[in-house]
Design a protein that fits this description.
Helices cover 22% and strands 32% of the residues. The protein has helices spanning 27-38, 163-170, 179-188, 314-332, 350-375, 377-381, 384-394; strands spanning 3-7, 41-45, 55-58, 71-77, 89-93, 96-101, 105-111, 114-119, 127-131, 136-145, 151-158, 173-177, 211-219, 236-240, 244-254, 260-270, 274-279, 291-297, 300-308. α5 packs antiparallel against α7.
Length: 405
Amino acid sequence: MTNELHVVREPRGQAGPGQRPFGLVRPAACWVLVLSLLGDTSVTLAQDDPAYSNLVFTEDPAPTAREPGKALVFLVRELYLRMDALPDEIVMVDGEAKGLLRQLTWFALQLEPGRHMLWGVHQGHDLVLECAAGRSYLVRLRERLDDKDRIVRDWLRDDPGGLEVLIKRHSLRQATLTPRGAAWIASRRKHLSHTEPPVAADHTSSGRAPWGFEHMLSERPLDRMNLETDFSNLTGRLALDSTALHFRLRARIRSSFTSWVVVSDSLDVEFTQVVRIRLGGTRFTGVAPWLDVIYRTPQGLRIASFSDAEELTAVSTYNRLFTVLEELLSARSPDAAVEPGASRGRASHPRHGLLQRLEQRHQHERHRHRAAREQQPEAGMRHVVPQLADLRELVADGGGHEPAA
């Protein structure tokens, strides 16, 4: 007769109630190993059995199909902050437990249209999410260490069109909550609390256009005429109306003991020019998240990046700016909304069609420059650098920049 034994094996710090953390060897485990080697016992790992684990995992990166009349929200935790695994994070939506978010995993939620509160993460702030029927949303859990080596967690909005690239890049697994996991969350429910994020008091918050954001940093790395204000701590005002984005900067900088120089910058981008918005990561000078706006110009694709200079309110400013831009772009072109679950084909996303046309144009230019080099080598070389810059301006990376830990 063959005996069947279950061995509980979960990462350190993530053991369930009444279990010892992984790494402490039980005497019975040695007998299980001996019996399995002798062929008398079959061993089933508990982390693969829903009856013995809080989560079960699947490797398939296919997006979840959306239910009719609902919004689809993807939650991702792709960072591995320390050498040892960190505990699972409980995800609450309004007053209901929706799942556990383990490191290097993701899962999807089906939510009713309207405003929802995302909370429950330890040492993290709440996130208000406005959901619309038939839309998809991507929220990433950023984890970092502060100057006292404490873990700080923030929810950051991102472009759902980059979900599949994010899953493949970090080898993320889809996590599904089991009945045992739901019972464990219920036992921890009383320890959870809401934490509202700090919000800048001088931001326009009327709920309608125009929207204003003060003390905003700006970068346009692909604009050769904007190097004077890039990579500086000069701040300006970002305003959004129903048709365009407007940035204005004007500052006096002391050039000597007796003189000053005025530095100014301005940018106007109509929403019809915008290709996509995405999380632009952080900069080495701080931990504030940046938002990338990728837009078309007659000279090619350009990027304008914005961030709140005030570190305390930077996360709430980023999420609010992303939400407002997303709604304005959706109102301009509802059919252009990113729907990762709608189709597995690249042609379903308007950005992929644009990139295909740019790639075809680039191939045509390569053949033309090759012919020019054969006829006049020195003339052909003058086009090499612009073409390389053109490739960088495509910004074809669907996952965006990595948020700094």
